[in-house]
Amino acid sequence: MIKCRVKEDREVKSLQALSESDRRLVAAWAADCAERVLWLFEAERPADGRPHAAVARTRAFARGELNTAVEIRRRFVDSGAARETKSLTTAAAARAAGQAAAVCHMGAHALGAAAYAVRAVSLATPDQPQAALDELHWQLTHMTAEVRAALRKLPPVGEDRSGPLGPGLLASGELGRIIRDIQGELARPDPE
C-alpha cells in the first residue's frame, strides 16, 4: 500500500496503489494491453508518437529501468494525444496507453489500460461484438499468475474512492462493465 499526503498533511493509504513490485508486474501486462490497440491511434495520427512513447516508458518502468517519482511527473507529458483525435476509437487507444503509463503511480490504472483497449476494439468493430470479447479473452489469458495475484489485491471497481477505480469514469458505463468483467474473472481460480 502506498501512503499519499493530503491537504491536512495526514497520510492516507490507498488500496488501489499496490506495492512498487506489484506495479512493475502489472505495468508489463498493461503495456501489452495498450500496445495491441496502438495501431488504431497510429492509423489516424501516424506522426504522433506520444502513445507509443507512453507504452515504451511503461515497459521500461516494468523492467525497473525508470524511477517511480520521475515517471509520475512525466506521465502527463503525453496525455494530450487522446484529446487531439478525431474519433472515439482513436481516443480510446490513446487512453489505453495513458492508463498504462499511469501504473507507475497507482496499480489500478492497469485495469484502466485493459478497459480502454477493449473499448477501442469495440468502437473499431461495432458490427463485430465478438471482437471485444476476444480482446478481453486475450487479456485474461496473457496474465501471469503473479499479475493475477497483484490485480486481485485491488478493491472492486466503484467501492474505494481513493483512486481511479473509485466512482467516476472507470467505474461507469462500458469501462466499468469491462473492469467488472475482468475482476469477476480474477475472482475465479487460476487456470491450470
Descriptive keywords:
two-stranded antiparallel sheet, mainly alpha, 192 residues, disordered N terminus
Number of helices: 9
How many domains make up the 3D coordinates?
1
* Residue windows where pLDDT falls under 50 for at least 5 positions: 1-12
Shape: globular
Topology:
Elements: E1 2-5, E2 11-14, H1 20-35, H2 38-44, H3 50-62, H4 68-74, H5 88-101, H6 109-124, H7 129-141, H8 145-152, H9 173-186
Antiparallel strand pairs: 1-2
Helix pairs in contact: 1-3, 1-5, 1-6, 1-8, 2-5, 3-5, 5-6, 6-7, 6-9
Describe this structure in words.
- This protein is 56% helix and 4% strand.
- It has one domain (20-186).
- The chain has a two-stranded antiparallel sheet with strand order 1-2.
- Mean pLDDT is 87; it is low at 1-12.
- With 192 residues, the protein is mainly alpha-helical.
- It has helices spanning 20-35, 38-44, 50-62, 68-74, 88-101, 109-124, 129-141, 145-152, 173-186, and strands at residues 2-5, 11-14.
- Strand 1 and strand 2 (11-14) form a beta hairpin.
In short:
With 192 residues, this protein is mainly alpha-helical. 56% of the residues lie in helices and 4% in strands.
